Amino acid sequence: MSPTASSTGAATSDSHRRRGPWIVGIAAVVVLALIAAFFVWRARADDGSDEAKALASALASGDFEGVSLDGTTAKKAAKQREKVLGNLSDSSAKDPSVEVDKVVKGENGTRQATFDWSWDLPRKGGSWEYTTTATLKPGDDGWSAELAPDVFAPDLTADEHLDVRAVVGQMGSITDREGKDLYGPRDVRILGIDKTQVDASDQESAARKLAGLLGTDADAYAAKVKSAGDKDFVQALTIRETAKDDYPLSQAADVPGFHEQKDSQPLALTRDFAPGVLGSLREATEEDVEKSDGTVVAGDMVGDSGVAAAERDTLVGTPGMQVAAVNQKTGKDRTLKSTDPSDGTDVTTTLDTDLQDEATKVIADQDSASAVVVMKPSTGDVLASALGPSGQSYPVGMVGQYAPGSTFKAVTALSLLRAGDTPDTTLECPGTANVEGRSFKNADSMDKSLFGTMSFSDAIAHSCNTAMLLQYDKVSQGELADAATTLGVGQDAPKGLEGAFMGSVDPKDSGVEHASDMMGQGRVLASPLSMATVLSSIQNGSTVAPRVIADEKAKAPEVEHPLTKDEATQMQGLLHGTVTRGTLKSQFGDVGGKQIIGKTGTAEWTNEDGDPSLHSWVIVAQGDVVVAAFVEDGGYGATTAGPIAKEVLKAAQKEE
């Protein structure tokens, strides 16, 4: 090796030795920087934000799958949420909005996640906004969330849950046409057993003894007491304060655990006062709340039927709202959010209290479902709607669907007048008649000397079945149905009586059914209200729409063929004949005053025992009053319903 080469190699080796430490140092710095940057990135990326967002979504929806939880499972967390939020979730139309506000460092390496909640409260309760905080714990697999009760709402303890309630203002009343209170808040006593005040071994015997004293079902109440919670007050009966002397309360006080609570509930003036018209309000059940999509909450009053249901908002006003934290151990609560209610106002009906009382009195001795409806033809006002004792739970006057019998001949008469008959037209009235192989007869009460040829006017006056049905080929079923429509049959039920049945005539009936319809049997159906409407339309000279709410203008239905003046005059004359010489003469022939028109009706039916029975009907009008009387299981119209209608008509004329 030459000296020159050796010299060069030595210099190169020294240079490498000098640069080596520098390269290693620079590399180390780069690696350390990269490591530091990685941990900074990791720290920033894993500060609990992702877990907080997942938890916020779960708090809003109730689905905790995919959320890491500390000491619990997704299924248990969902149940905890359901329990803590109580009826707030069911009452709200949609899930709450839950957003992460911030995530900050906590003690011992934890993170504190703050959430902004927003609920849309039901019944115009507005929005409810608040913040809560959840602790996120570090672990080998990331962060896990603790679900304390106050994660769901501010300051909740383990014994508390949320409860949404309506705050109801002063309720209005339903009044009669003169402003007298018929339905509204009444003082009541709620009677029952407080299970905390009686030994478990004595609870069944106490329940049975109390039920016996109050006249309720002992087996049912004993079972109710047994199934109730250990600390529950179990209601047995609610009575009016005015009726307290009707019950042996002094004896009830000796029953172990007996307790009574004083309260106020919306009730009618008396239990039997026009129940099918007034209807009722009651406190919403859990089922009502669940089905309402947020429009009903616990404590709300909901309507079951009648004017009370139709005018619920007016009577109740605008309920306020309270969200409370309820301690299930102590029963105490604290308000977290509330809005004030507005009071309800009165609703005036068309009812006449004195006439209603008289109608109820007249029909009180009937032992079958029965009804009286009184109307004012000029306005359609329902002045009274009374039910017989056995019909109190079923308002037959409004919703009953019965064959109207010969009262429907008022409709048949109009169809025949339109077909060209006059009151003097000669008709045949045989004792029996055959239509397409089916035999029909007249009522057994009809004077047999009348059988044979008679005028159309006499056929209506004496209610000849065969004379009417033998005209079935003169009037089509469509024309019969059209006449019924002209007289108000089948129209929409009035506001406040949405469940009322306004009658039906199928325009497609033919043959034997059509012939039967002509005499009010067949498949024709009516209620006392609908037949009162028929006679009101005849007396008024135009189609009448019933009305029960005084501020609601009765709008007569549009009909294809309105009643003409000539038709009304002839119809009134035909129906006056029933009073002067026909089936109503014995009852109304001696009643003085203005002209009386009307019609009797007797419809055959088979009762629940399979025995043949009779529906008894009378519709009668005098001046500006129409009375419809009905007895489900009665005798002939003139003999059973007739006396009822007469007494009510006389009372109505005194009112006039």
Automatic annotation (TrEMBL):
Residues 172-328 form the Penicillin-binding protein dimerisation domain. Residues 56-159 form the NTF2-like N-terminal transpeptidase domain. Residues 371-650 form the Penicillin-binding protein transpeptidase domain. The keyword Plastid does not apply. Keywords: Cell cycle, Cell division, Membrane, Transmembrane, Transmembrane helix. GO terms for molecular function: penicillin binding; peptidoglycan L,D-transpeptidase activity. GO terms for biological process: cell division; cell wall organization; response to antibiotic. GO terms for cellular component: plasma membrane. The chain crosses the membrane at residues 21-41. It is found in: Membrane. Residues 329-348 are annotated as: Disordered. Belongs to the transpeptidase family. This is Cell division protein FtsI.
